[in-house]
Structure formats: structure tokens, C-alpha cells
Amino acid sequence: MPSYSAPIDDTLFILNDVLKYERFNNLPGFADASPDIVEAVLREAGRVAEEVFFPLNQVGDQEGCVRHDDGSVTTPKGFKEGFEKYKEGGWMGLGFDPEYGGQGLPYVLHTAVSEYLSSANMAFAMYPGLTQGAMAAIHVHGTDEQKQTYLPNMVEGIWTGTMNLTEPHCGTDLGLLRTKAVPQGDGTYKITGQKIFISAGEHDMSDNIIHLVLARIEGAPEGVKGISLFIVPKFAVNDDGSVGDANGVSCGSIEEKMGIHGNSTCVMNYDDAVGTLVGEENKGLKAMFIMMNEARLGVGLQGLAISEVAYQNAVTYAKERIQGRSLSGAKHEDKKADPIIVHPDVRRNLMTIRSFNEAGRAFILWAALKSDIAHRSEDKDDAALNEEMMGLLTPVIKGVLTDKGFDHAVMAQQMYGGHGYIEEWGMSQYVRDARIAMIYEGANGIQALDLVGRKLGMNGGRAVQAFFKEVGDFCQDNRENEELTFFTKHLKKGLNDLQAATMWFVQNAMAKPENAGAGSHDYMHLFGLVALGYMWALQTKAAQEKLAEGAGDKQYFDNKIATSRFFFERVMPETSAHLARISTGADSMMAIPEDAF
Amino acid sequence: MPSYSAPIDDTLFILNDVLKYERFNNLPGFADASPDIVEAVLREAGRVAEEVFFPLNQVGDQEGCVRHDDGSVTTPKGFKEGFEKYKEGGWMGLGFDPEYGGQGLPYVLHTAVSEYLSSANMAFAMYPGLTQGAMAAIHVHGTDEQKQTYLPNMVEGIWTGTMNLTEPHCGTDLGLLRTKAVPQGDGTYKITGQKIFISAGEHDMSDNIIHLVLARIEGAPEGVKGISLFIVPKFAVNDDGSVGDANGVSCGSIEEKMGIHGNSTCVMNYDDAVGTLVGEENKGLKAMFIMMNEARLGVGLQGLAISEVAYQNAVTYAKERIQGRSLSGAKHEDKKADPIIVHPDVRRNLMTIRSFNEAGRAFILWAALKSDIAHRSEDKDDAALNEEMMGLLTPVIKGVLTDKGFDHAVMAQQMYGGHGYIEEWGMSQYVRDARIAMIYEGANGIQALDLVGRKLGMNGGRAVQAFFKEVGDFCQDNRENEELTFFTKHLKKGLNDLQAATMWFVQNAMAKPENAGAGSHDYMHLFGLVALGYMWALQTKAAQEKLAEGAGDKQYFDNKIATSRFFFERVMPETSAHLARISTGADSMMAIPEDAF
């Protein structure tokens, strides 16, 4: 009963009018991404999301994945056929290196496409998503032989990939991991150990599954300094590139989870499985972080994606469900009651979600563009600064967009009243699916700590200063634009709160690091609000310019400005509360002794 | 794997030292509730919750209820036996009129007991909970004959009860309801129609089910002025009180829900079912509100109850799970890593939940005591004022405690990392169960509107003024108590924000009611924060007095004060953001035309 329509026009407005991505047509791949190509790609991706992925969403939730006694896993009805269509469309390699069969289009376009697929079917979109993460790690750190062996088939989607980090006793703290790798003298290793929570670990949609596995080489140092990364294929690859014998890896069980039932979350058992090293010995974490960073952006995108589809359905319901009368008098005299969208509190929910979605979409595309510059610019300084800004923004995108994405799925469900709680209406699934995004790829508490404890201070705070400068300059440059005053005034207030919080850490967290940990969650969300506010200021300016030109859909641009106003009036005031909380430090939360809890 | 321990000592501290409930021993039933009786009742209730209800919680979630082809419904394994034990303990009538077999003990004690039962097994506790709501309505509005016919068996738990309001096309807006009642000339009516979302509508635990059903007598006025309330038993009751023939009522299906799987949520079909009128014709809503108000408090209590059990399990996990090291240096050198409770962000989550639970418990018991005064005091003025204050507090308790209860279940789940998402660990169930409490018995948006649109202005705002005075007087009376200054200063700031928001409505919502609707959600939560802050001020003072006396468990009282400080530093600052949002009014949220969404 739910429905989904890809927000193509909004993506186009952001890419063309707000970010003006054509400015970057000197970067490799951007020249191929002319406006008409971009629009064609987005429209086709929207069609695939709506017609292929979305119809499999509820059935995926209801059926889930089934593990058989031989360790094989069957995905829900239709998934295999759906994946064939995805492969045929060439979507896996959209942004990937043409040397291995990819299309080399901008990452920002790949990101826009991924939003639609995750909205339509998050559990299904994870199969290619994990594969793309594995492709990225092999591409950056693999040997030529590894690249030639694995990448072309992965780019085609004939083979898929996974990430294997977590073990039963260690998730966040990878220094505790025990999976061992024993060198065989022929350049290969035998891997033995157990990994848990392996998304897409085993399934029936590809001919081979390429596992990227963190393990400890015999005799390696303790802790994170002794971790290496390995490629461990489900089936050995013969010299001619064909699939050979089964390797010593199997799915021991699949988890019964709260959501994303369509994705097989596996316990993977490695028993003398043959693998090859990726990158240097004991430098596995570094190689893994290539995947992790991409995966974290992908997870942030899931938060946005679920928020968007949940919003669309809440709007439909709010316009159809009649119940009660408007507080200012009946609006639909012809009906027995008004549709609930007339009620301010229903509007409050819808506008809260909407004002997040449209800014969240801009935020993630703005960040993806920085990633394109980081990876494609020939200006090394510019590339390095954009890489650092991406590093700074990654935990904000992951943490804030998934926290809020979940909250908004809950809000959208609330609009349905009792029907929201009944599975057949589909809103419960959005809540249950969105929940995992706050947890995996580094729980959001870890994102906040990464932001405050690592990213803020990197290179003397160069990245965060660049962010402050970009936002501050926008306010300064537009100070005489009266139409924008309302928006820049509120944005500047938020920026001031963020800068004050940053200064508070500088002054109070050096001597007492717990003051940083105690404020990290609030800081991450304060940062997110300023970033989203900045996106609203940019969009407002672009919409005002379009209105002045008299071009395009007036209602669309009016809506943009109205939604921006809502954001600054209703969402942005939270920055003060975040600052107030941060400034109280760690004392009250650490006061009760551990054993007195 | 989860566990539960009833927080009996905390309840006793609140009843004895904070609320000093013995002050009220002139009220009927209170004399029987001596401190040793109260403690004995609570300890036995805790035992029943831990040993009878709790072991059935996960199995209830996993098995759910099954409807058979003949319309009968089987509850999960063990529920029937568990209900027998509940009946044997005499819990159903703990606070009920002794004339019908109840024990007549204070409602505040019944409320304390209900928290434990809902923590242990929310879905199970709903069977008696609905019965008690039905008992209350019959007790207040039923004829002597109806009371004699139904109440004694219900008080014993031999028969259970339900509430039937919702129809497929109407929930909030009961004026739209269509179920019809045709007078038979013999004082009975024949009821025909369909009701949905009927909790405990059909099951195998009682000999008869007494449905209270809203319906429209033929020829009655349209809208809510034509609704009457009927008793419709599943089986007719013979003149000798025994169970007779089946009535024309049956369970058409049971809903597949996000949570509370152990409770059967039924579609109930009435087909010329024989019923008798409760109260006056066309005054059904008034009679139904007796049930609704009690049910709303019960639902608020569910929010607290789930927050409590989820918190307990999060604490256990945080003390056991080792991962990473404290930011201020290793705390447990003997282990490979520190337990995660050393991390400030983990503490932030735990303390946020704890500071809510202990204040929420006090809030609901403080309100329950007002209900006792309202229903038992011989001083009619005092009774009336307390009744009005209960009316004012009911939407706050329902809306705030369930919104926060759900948020806290999510926070507690987050502490488990990936394990929180796996069903067998039990944390997902708390989230899924808690979710319904925000929806049923009037979705929280309706609670907020009830507060702002109806309760605030009643009798010239007498109740809200009394609340402001009580909180303001506490701050004033303790102004020279230096130990309390920190706490009363923050409480006074919150109260000022609440009073400013109230004044804003007075000035801006008369002419434009949408300004009230637009701020209602924030106002309800602002109100909740002040009420919870007041509870913390009261508890802090009581704890300080105990410490001065040197009596009792010093650590317990130190923890109280530390938790109170956390609440005022970390939770209370939100009052400013609520006020800021309220003061922006309805314009930005109503700006986009309905059809432009």
C-alpha cells in the first residue's frame, strides 16, 4: 500500500541551481556528465527504484532470508530477478573506474542514484552497496593482479562483496579481534575465525562472494597495530578467471533482526579459508577505512532515504484521511470531515521531515562533490583540503542523518494513527529498517567521538576552520541581500553557537578529555544543524534567483522558501540547547560511581 | 536474556519521603494502607511481576496470538496460567470499591503496582488494564443491576473487559462513527457495526468478555452528540448470573502489529448483538471518558514502565560489555578493555533515561494521589480542584511519558550496538512495544491539543494557575535553602518559560486558533519538563533531608542528587527551545497550500 516517487526534480535543482556542479567540468568524468546525461541517468534510476526495487520492499520484509542446512541462503521472492535488472542496467559501476568496466561518472551522481534505490528498498540496495565498498578498497589498496581478478566481475555484478570486521566480542574496539591468518609461503594465507553481523554475507544472487576480512597474522603485534585486511572469495578463482572450488568459508546462521529482513545478516565461519593480503601487513585498518568512509556516507544516505519515502507516504495519508475539522473552520465543506493535513500539528510533523529531507539531500550531495574534488582534482592542495573536509563531514552525515532519519520515520508513522502500527500499511517497516542505520558502520556515539576526538583537531583544525569560513563568508557576502537577511541571521546565530561550542572544547577538553566525550553527541547534532541551515540558505538564495528570473515552477520555489523559513524558525532554535548542554561538561554524567548504577 | 527487577525502594522513597502519602490517611482506604502494608503489597507485586509476568514477555512477542477459524483466539503459551496467578493474587480489585469485592486501597498504590506489571510484560498487563477501565466506567455510570451483574466477576478476573471506540474510518473523530443500536422495547438494544484495534477483544483467559461499545441509537443526532455507550457481553448472562448463550459478537481477524504481540488486537464484528445502555442516551462520550482518562494514565505509565526495564538492561550490558578504554586512562587494567559504562556518551544515555524514569515515577504517583483526593475527599472544593488538575495533567502524562519512554527504549537499545538490533537480545521488543503507547488512547498530537485547546482554559485556567502556584511556591519557600539553590534556580527558569508560553497563547491564539495547534506539541513537552523538574526538586530536598538525618542508604541519596543535577543541566535546557518554537506561531507551517504538498 505504500508508494514511492523518486524526487528527481529536487535532485536536479540541487545539482544544477544550488551546487552548480557544472563548475567542475574540468574534473575527470564530469565532462561526460552533461546536464542532459545527468537528467537521463536520474530519470532512469528513478524508474528502476520505483518499478524494480520498490515492489520488492514489503515482500522482502515479510519473507526475509532463509538459510538452509547446507549453509546456502535464499533471498526473498523476486530479489534474484531484481538484481539481474540492476546488473543489466550497469548501475554497479556508474561511478567506478572505466579501466575495470565502470562508467567513471561523478560520485555525486552515484550518490543521487543511491538515495532513490535506498528509499525504494533499503535491504535490497545493501547488496550492491556492500559490493561497491569492497570494490573501493580493492581499487585503492589491491595489487594489479587482485584488481584484474576481482574488479571486472564485481563491476558487472556477477560477483558481490562484503565487509567482515565484527566478532562476537568486538565491534567498535577492533584491537580485540582474534581471527587469525597463517601465511602459507606461497603468498596466500589461511584465515580462521568467526565474524558476525555480515550483511549480504551469503545469498543466491551472485556467482561468487568476495569477502574482505580483517584478521591478525600470526605473530603480529597486539591491538589495532596488528590487523591486516584479506580478500577471501567464497569460491576460489581459477587462473582463467572462472569460479573454482569452494573456499573454507560458510554461513553458520542468519540473524533474526528488527528490520532489513531482506538482507541476509550472517554469522560467517572461516576455517582455513584461503585469502590474499590487501595492502600492507598490519595496515588493515587503513585499507578498511576506505570502505568504511564510503559505507558511512552510504548509511547516512539511508537515513535520508527512509525519511524521504516515509514522508511521501505520510503526506499521501494526511491528504486522504478525513478526521475532524480545521481549527479555523471547515476547509472541505463537501466532506464529512477535513483531511488531517489541515491540522497544524500534522503540518508540524510533515514540515519537520520535509525541511530535513530537502536540506539533507543537499548536504550529502554537497559533500559528495567534495569527495569528487578530493579524488579527481589535479590541484593537490585543493584535493587534500576537500579530503579533510569529507573526513570531518562523514561522521556528521552518518550520525545526524541516521538519527534524524529514524526520528522522521517515527513521525511519519505517527501520522497514520493506529494504522501506522499495523504491518500491512508499511510504516512500521520504515521505522524498523531505519533503526539499524544508527547502529552499524560505527554506532552514532562513535561517530560523535570521531568528530570531536579526531576530526576537529586534525592538521590544527584546518578542515573545521574551512567549514566555518565557508558558512561565515556566505553570510557576510550576502549581508546586503535583504531577501536573505532573515535566513542568514538565523544561520549566523547557529554558526556562533557552533563556534562557541568548539571554543569550549579547546578550553576545557585538553586537560579533561571526558568533557569532549560528554559533549560529543550534542556537538555532532549542533554541527548538523548548522550544515543543514547552510544548505537551506544556499537553496533559498537559488530559489529567490529563479523566482526573480521568472523561470520554472513558481510553486516549487515558493515551497522551497517556505520550508526554509520553517527550518530556521522551528528546527534551528535547538542549537542553543545543544550549546547549553555541551557547556556543562562531564561532571554530572560521571558523578555516580560505576558500581552504584 | 533480558532481566527485570522491580524498583521497590524507589517507589517507597517517593511515596514515603517525597509525597509523604501518610498525610492523607483521613481519606477512605488510606488508613488500610499503612507503611508496612504498602511495602508488603509492593514487594509481592514486584515478585509477581518478576516471576510470573516477566518470563512470559519474550515468548509472548515471539508467539503472538492466533485466531482460529471459529473466531476463537489463543494467547501465547503460559499466558492463561499467568492470568490465573494474577487472579489468585487478587490484583484486579486492588484499588476497587469493596462493595463489589475490591480491596479499596489507594489508586496511588494500584498505580505503583501497575508500573511493575507493565515493565515486566506490557502486552500481558493490558488484559487486566482494559478490564479495570471497563470496571471504572460501569462503576460510575452503570445501573445497580449492571454493577451487580458484571462487576463482581470482573473484580475477580473471571470475566474481562474491553473498550470499543475505533471504526475503520474514525478514530480521533468519533463523531463519524456508524455502529448502530436499535432499541428492542425491552430495555435492550441490538448493536450492529464493526470496531477495529480492540485490544484484548477476544482471548482464552476468561469465561466472558464484557465489551463496552460506542454506538449510535437509531434517530440520534449526528456527530458526537448522538453517541451512546453500551455493555455488550460476549456471552449473555443468565438471571442466576451464570454464563449463557453466545451473543452476536465475534472476532473477525487479529492485526499483525509492530509490537505487543502478546495482546490480541481484534477486528470485532457486531451483528445484532444484544446490549444494554450505560448512562444516558447520547451521552456515551462522557461515560467513555471515565475509561479514557484512566486508560490514558495507564498508557503514560507504560511509557515509564518500558523506559525503566530498558534502562535496567542497558545498565547491565554497559557494565558487562568491554570495549575500548576510558578517555581518562584505563579503569580496569585487569581486563583487555574497560566496560563501556566508563565512556561519557554511554553515561549520557544512561543518565538521560535514569533522570526521566525516577522523575516520571514521582510525577505519575503525585498525579495518582491527586486522583485519590479527587475521588475520595469529603472536601468538595478540594476534590474538584484536584479533579481539574488531574484533567490538566492527564494529557501531559500520556503524551510526554510515552514520547520519552519510546525515545529511551531506543537509547537503551543503542547501548547494545549491533546486538540491540537482534531480536533474541530483547531490546528490539521494548522499542516495538513502546511505540504503540504514543498512538493509542488518543495519539500524542491529540493529547497536546487536548491540553492546549481544552484543559488550559477550563474554569478560567484555575488548574494551570494552581500548578504554577504549587511549583512557584516551592521555589519561593525554599529560597533560603542554599543546598537547593542550584535546583530551584533551574526549575524557576523552566517555570518562567512555561508561563511565557502560556501567556503567548493567551495573546495570540484567541484570534487565531492555529497558533495554539502549532505550539501544542512543544507546549506539552515544555509542561512535562517543568513537572519533571518539580519532581526532581522535591526528591532532591527529600534526599538532602535524609542525608542530614544520616538515615538510610547514603549512596542511594547521593545518586538521587547527582541524577537531579544531571536533569537540570542536561535535560531542562530544552525549555528555551520549546518556547522559541512556540513563539513563532503557525505561519511557517501553514504556508504551503494543501495541494502543493
Automatic annotation (TrEMBL), chains A, B:
Top enzyme class: oxidoreductase
Q: Which UniProt keywords apply?
A: FAD, Flavoprotein, Oxidoreductase
Pfam families according to UniProt:
Acyl-CoA_dh_1 (PF00441), Acyl-CoA_dh_C (PF12806), Acyl-CoA_dh_M (PF02770), Acyl-CoA_dh_N (PF02771)
Q: What is its EC number?
A: 1.3.99.41
Q: Function of this protein? A: Involved in the assimilation of dimethylsulphoniopropionate (DMSP), an important compound in the fixation of carbon in marine phytoplankton, by mediating the conversion of 3-(methylthio)propanoyl-CoA (MMPA-CoA) to 3-(methylthio)acryloyl-CoA (MTA-CoA).
Organism whose genome encodes this protein: Ahrensia marina
Domain annotation Acyl-CoA dehydrogenase/oxidase N-terminal: ranges:
80-157
Domain Acetyl-CoA dehydrogenase-like C-terminal, by residue range, is 467-593
Q: Hey, which family's this protein in?
A: Belongs to the acyl-CoA dehydrogenase family.
Q: Which residues form the Acyl-CoA oxidase/dehydrogenase middle domain?
A: 163-272
Q: What's the superkingdom here?
A: Bacteria
Its protein name is: 3-methylmercaptopropionyl-CoA dehydrogenase
Q: Annotated Gene Ontology MF terms?
A: flavin adenine dinucleotide binding; oxidoreductase activity, acting on the CH-CH group of donors
Catalytically driven reaction(s): 3-(methylsulfanyl)propanoyl-CoA + oxidized [electron-transfer flavoprotein] + H(+) = 3-(methylsulfanyl)acryloyl-CoA + reduced [electron-transfer flavoprotein]
Q: Which residues are in the Acyl-CoA dehydrogenase/oxidase C-terminal domain?
A: 282-451
- Fetch the SUPFAM superfamilies from UniProt: Acyl-CoA dehydrogenase C-terminal domain-like (SSF47203), Acyl-CoA dehydrogenase NM domain-like (SSF56645)
Q: Entry's InterPro entries?
A: Acyl-CoA_dh-like_C_dom, Acyl-CoA_Oxase/DH_mid-dom, Acyl-CoA_Oxase/DH_mid-dom_sf, AcylCo_DH-like_C, AcylCo_DH/oxidase_C, AcylCoA_DH/ox_N, AcylCoA_DH/ox_N_sf, AcylCoA_DH/oxidase_NM_dom_sf
Which coenzyme or cofactor does it need? FAD
Q: Does the keyword Transit peptide apply?
A: no
